[in-house]
């Protein structure tokens, strides 16, 4: 899909290797596992927890120009939904191509209703604009 | 990177970070760099998690 997924934690790359080779659940994992040992990157993204030296569950979508477009952070005890991540990633790709459209909350994939040129004329008329499709 | 001490905001350019990696595909250590991503015009998803040997 033209995207690189990088996993990041404050563990070292050596521990990443050991975990990847020991945990059978990770047998299919093909993503590079990055080591943020100083926590500097985790701090930059606002996910560093100084109390534990660990990174919270943050997911960040960055475009090919290096601009941060999407951020999602959960506390330790809540796992992430991969379908929602995919939805946001697909929407980011779509809107990068169709810069005059926006993807509303129910947008899931190409072909779903979008809002075109949202401007003054759409104020109070979003329902009608979505119905048209 | 101290400019981002309070966290990057949406729409900001990510600083030129560079991190050592373990790459399961090559079974070798490597480097992830934002500069390389931009040079190669690649989308990037950074997926932070608390620690190895826990659930992700």
Folded structure, characterized:
The complex is a heterodimer of chains A (133) and B (56). In chain A, the strands form four sheets. Chain A has a two-stranded parallel sheet. Chain A has 133 residues and is an alpha+beta fold. Chain A has helices spanning 13-22, 40-44, 82-97, 126-131; strands spanning 3-9, 33-35, 48-49, 54-55, 57-62, 68-74, 101-102, 115-116. Chain A is built from four helices and eight strands; from the N terminus they run E-H-E-H-E-E-E-E-H-E-E-H. Chain A is elongated. Chain A has a domain at 7-83: Glutaredoxin (3-Layer(aba) Sandwich), CATH 3.40.30. With 56 residues, chain B is mainly beta. Chain B has one helix and three strands, in the order E-E-H-E. Chain B has one helix spanning 34-39; strands at 18-23, 28-33, 43-48. Chain B has a two-stranded antiparallel sheet. The longest helix of chain B is centred in the middle third of the chain and has 6 residues, at 34-39. Chain B is globular and about 35 Å long. Chain B starts with 17 loop residues before the first strand and ends in an 8-residue tail after the last strand. Chains A and B meet through strand 1, helix 1, strand 2, helix 2 and strand 4 of A and strand 1, strand 2, helix 1 and strand 3 of B.
Contiguous helical run count of chain B: 1
Q: How many H/I helical runs of chain A?
A: 4
Mean pLDDT of chain B, nearest integer?
89
| Architecture (CATH level 2) name of the domain at 7-83 in chain A | 3-Layer(aba) Sandwich
Give the CA-CA distance, first to last residue of chain B: 27 Å
If you compute it from the alpha carbons, what radius of gyration of chain A comes out, rounded to the nearest whole angstrom? 19 Å
Topology of chain A as a string of helices (H) and strands (E): EHEHEEEEHEEH
Specify the biggest β-sheet of chain B.
2 strands, antiparallel
């Amino acid at each position: 899909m033209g995207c690189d997924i990088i996993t990041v934690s404050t563990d070292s790359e050596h521990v990443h290797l050991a975990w990847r080779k020991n945990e059978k659940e990770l047998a299919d994992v093909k993503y590079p596992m990055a080591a943020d040992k100083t926590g500097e990157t985790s701090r930059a993204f606002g996910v560093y927890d100084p109390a534990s030296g660990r990174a919270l569950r943050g997911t960040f979508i960055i475009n090919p120009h290096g601009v941060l477009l999407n951020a999602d952070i959960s506390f330790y005890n809540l796992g992430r939904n991969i379908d929602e991540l995919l939805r946001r990633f697909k929407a980011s790709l779509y809107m990068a191509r169709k810069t005059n459209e926006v993807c509303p909350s129910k947008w899931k994939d190409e072909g779903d209703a979008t809002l075109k040129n949202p401007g003054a004329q759409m104020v109070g008329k979003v329902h009608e604009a979505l119905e048209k499709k | 990177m101290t400019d981002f001490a309070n966290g990057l905001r949406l729409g900001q350019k990510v600083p030129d970070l560079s991190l050592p990696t373990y790459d399961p595909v090559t079974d070798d250590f490597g480097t992830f760099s934002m500069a390389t991503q931009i040079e190669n015009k690649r989308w990037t998803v950074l997926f932070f998690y608390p620690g190895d040997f826990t659930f992700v």
